Amino acid sequence: MLVGRAVFGQSIGLRLVAVSPPDSAGKKTWLRIGRKAAVTLVLAYALIVVAMMFLEESLLFFPTPYPDGLWDQPGLDPEDAWFEAADGTRLHGWYVHHDKPRAVILFCHGNAGNVTHRSDVLQVLRDQVGASALVFDYRGYGRSEGSPNERGILEDARAARKWLAQREGIPEDQVVVMGESLGGGVAVDLAAKDGAKALVLQSTFTSIPDVAAHYYPWLPVRWLIRNRLDSLSKIASYRGPLLASHGDADTIIPFVFGQRLFEAANEPKQFVVLEGLDHNDSPPRAYYETLGCFLDKVNAAAAGHSESPKEP
Question: Concatenated DSSP letters for 94-148?
Fold first, then answer.
């Protein structure tokens, strides 16, 4: 029995010595692989975050500089507008005149192209809506000098409105400010801080961080983005008439962003659903008819306020 126990014990001991070293070594190997993978993922994530921080402007602004674009527009025959921003940046725009304008409109375009890509908008605003209008290029776009960033393009809009008001011989706050997409953020800032006769927004957003978070939910974009165009926090400061529109099939700026911004705005306001339209689809003729009626109401309200009170 003693011999048997010794052999049995020795046998067990041999098994333990033979099996346990490979088990322990395997676990250590997998731990090393796991640590390396985790470090690699963290470094890759950090590199993506840093790269997006440095490339932010190039991911947000897509200017088409001169001479790209169709600069010869015989059917439109726009007047070249040249002016300077507060920091001295020389800017360019296209202006069309109407002898008896229903409104004087400053149009702030989106984040891509240049004024030549908005010639159809100018044509409709003049010939169908019956307005004098200026569409201008932000710094770095078209013939405008410089490079775009949030602070710069907001200065550009103020310089453009000043030029337009002087050209039409009206106060700056009697200009209707109209913005599409990124230009909606520019228009909201201008109207909220300086006032406007009316504000017209097309397919715009609550803020750049909101849109970025929609596309990159796995990145801390809300805390990293410098160019914010936070219309949601600004629009309550605007106290004039608002006409907002958004395509319900918008795949670039989701419809819900346009709704949220509209809900945060003061009365009087009107929202137009552009049924079946994606972000870059042109609004139908009916939309511009609605815009014309909206401007007529704005003019009627302004005329009513300007009347002197009657003697009892």
Answer: EEE--SS-SEEEEEE--SEE-GGGGHHHHHHHHHTS-EEEEEEPPTTSBT--S--
Alpha-carbon separation of residue 48 from 52, 54, 62, 272 (angstroms): 6, 10, 20, 39
User: Which stretch of 16-25, 117-126, 181-190 has the lowest confidence by average pLDDT?
Assistant: 16-25
CA atoms within 13 A of residue 289's CA, in its CB half-sphere? 3
How many CB atoms sit inside 10 A of residue 308's CB? 5
- In the prediction, which pLDDT does 98 show? 97
C-alpha 242, offset from chain centre = 18
Spatial separation of the C-alpha atoms in residues 235 and 287, rounded to whole Å: 23
Q: Which of 201, 283, 270 has the alpha carbon at shortest distance from 234? A: 201
Model pLDDT, residue 51: 58
Closest of 201, 204, 199, 200 to residue 181, by C-alpha: 204
- At 254 the three-state DSSP class reads coil
pTM for the whole thing?
A: 0.84
Nearest to 240 by CA among 288, 283, 294: 294
Average pLDDT, the chain: 88
Length of the chain (residues): 312
- Which of helix, strand or coil describes residue 253? coil
As given in the structure block, the two tokens for residue 72 are 């010869």
* Residues contacting residue 79 through CB under 8 Å, at least 6 positions apart: 94, 95, 96, 97
Task: Classify 91 as helix, strand or coil.
Answer: strand
CB 183 within 8 A of CB 107: yes
- CA terminus-to-terminus distance, the chain: 129
Q: Are 111 and 191 in contact, with CB atoms under 8 Å apart?
A: no
Q: What is the pLDDT of residues 132-162, one digit of tens each?
A: 999 999 999 999 999 999 999 999 999 999 9
